[in-house]
Amino acid sequence: MSTIKLKRALEEALQQPNRTIVFDREKEEMRIENSETKKGVTVTLGGILAKFEGNVQKAAEETVYYVNEALNAFDGAGKEEQKEKRIFPVIRSASFPIEAEEGVPLFYDEHTAETRIYYAVDLGSTYRLIDEKLMAKEKWSADQIREIARFNLRSLPLEMKQDTVAGNVFYFLNSNDGYDATRILNDRFLKDMSDKIEGDMTVSVPHGDVLIIGDIRNETGYDILAQMAMSFFAAGRIPITALSFVYEGGHLEPVFILAKNRPHKD
């Protein structure tokens, strides 16, 4: 029954005049493709439901996002003008796939035990993750992509909202441009924030559309941080990690919140 609900939800959300949607009932697979180019994506509904523990709404939201991303990337990948100016890094969880839909390896760098850095070409309403095939086509080297992406990252705005809870100060970056969590890679930004922090500085990227910096001034702050990070992680469209990091000396270390509010660095 959940599979049928998910099928209906996906058909309604993904239907467009230039798309063809075919459902294989026996395999519980749905194929969504551009009716002109025949390029598309195949998703296995049973596997998606298992990943989200039967939650149809979450499964549908996640699947719609990635299918649209993939199909829009196929449609827009040929735009040539100033492509380098639209290359950005994107932070994803360490469990994020390392291959594109067709089995082509994605270009990525390790970041922390919880996070990984991918690279993308921004297409406006979505973006295409850079894989080895695109790198070969554009004749981009790995170092070139890294350098351009970091440069472009520094051009993104850094407007933050502030909230104080039980004597602890939390800063939220939530611009909804697709790169909020990615600001964790802006070393200059983190250094500037550390200069104004009075207590322990923490950095959290629970999902792709938020970055949280904590000024933890008492032990209660760590409990608040843990609950906050978990809440954002559970609600995020692109969950990354419920763990937070302590920023010290230019380095990020994961922090586990133990009993009696005491942090433990791994």
Protein architecture, described:
The protein has 266 residues and is an alpha+beta fold. Helix content is 32%, strand content 28%. It is built from 7 helices and 14 strands. β6 and β7 form a beta hairpin. α1 runs parallel beside α3.
pLDDT averaged over residues:
87
Q: Unreliable stretches, pLDDT < 50, 5 or more residues?
A: none
Q: Which term fits the overall shape?
A: globular
SS element count, helices: 7
Distance between the termini: 43 Å
What does the main sheet amount to? 7 strands, antiparallel
Q: How many DSSP E strands?
A: 14
Briefly note the structural class of the backbone. alpha+beta
Helix proportion of residues, in percent?
25-40%
Radius of gyration, CA atoms, in whole angstroms: 20 Å
Q: Biggest sheet: strands side by side, in what order?
A: 8-9-11-10-12-13-14
The H-and-E topology, N to C, reads as: HEEEHHEEEEHHEEHEEHEEE
Strand content: 25-35%
Topology of this structure?
Layout (H helix, E strand, L loop, with lengths): L1 H13 L4 E6 L4 E6 L5 E5 H7 L4 H21 L10 E7 L14 E3 L4 E8 L4 E3 L2 H7 L3 H12 L7 E5 L2 E6 L13 H10 L3 E5 L6 E6 L3 H16 L8 E5 L2 E7 L5 E3 L1
Helix pairs in contact: 1-3
